[in-house]
Amino acid sequence: MNKTKILVQFSVIYALIGTFLGSHMAGDGSMLFRAIHAHILVVGWLSLFAFGIFYAVFAIPKNSKLAKWQVITALIGSFGLSFGMWMHYFQPAWAPDLFSLLFYIVGGTILVISFILFAVIAFYFGDLLKEKQA
């Protein structure tokens, strides 16, 4: 699994969606999507991009199951939180309230797990986190 490629490519998708939402809000003069816009950009674009760059810069072992699960939970959690938030706020007819709320909560919880795994990786592989010599 190329962790950097996957994370950066998904972050670009979130950047495009977040930028589109921001543009839509500006053009419409409505701040209706502001919370979703912010979460898509921070959780989707910024966090996934930061994770991807982390894996590109530091030599975390390619076969690390911990890193693999961190990436998987980051992808699932960022989608679950963002899409669940959208469903919760806008309550589409096809999604019952309880389903929307659970999707939102489970997505956010999975994202929290991803950040916990990232913290474990940062400390477990701490010896690999070195500045490059100029």
Which helices and strands occur, and which strands form pairs?
Blueprint: H1 3-28, H2 34-57, H3 65-90, H4 97-124
Helix pairs in contact: 1-2, 2-3, 3-4
Structural write-up:
The chain is mainly α and 134 residues long. The protein has one domain. The protein is 78% helix and 0% strand. The protein has four helices and no strands. Helix 1 (3-28) packs antiparallel against helix 2, helix 2 (34-57) packs antiparallel against helix 3 and helix 3 runs antiparallel to helix 4. InterPro entries: Cyt_c_oxase-like_su1_sf (IPR036927). This is Cytochrome-c oxidase. It comes from Paenalkalicoccus suaedae.
> What string gives the helices and strands in order?
HHHH
Low-pLDDT regions? none
Number of domains: 1
Strand tally: 0
Radius of gyration: 17 Å
What fraction of residues sit in β-strands?
under 5%
Can you tell me the overall shape?
A: globular
Instruction: Provide the structure class.
Output: mainly alpha
Mean pLDDT: 91
- Residue share in helices? over 70%
Organism: Paenalkalicoccus suaedae
InterPro entries: Cyt_c_oxase-like_su1_sf
Protein name: Cytochrome-c oxidase
Keywords: Membrane, Transmembrane, Transmembrane helix
Short description:
The protein is mainly α and 134 residues long. α3 packs antiparallel against α4 (97-124). The model has no long low-confidence stretch (mean pLDDT 91).
Please name the defining characteristics of this protein.
single chain; 134 residues; mainly alpha; 4 helices; 78% helix; 0% strand
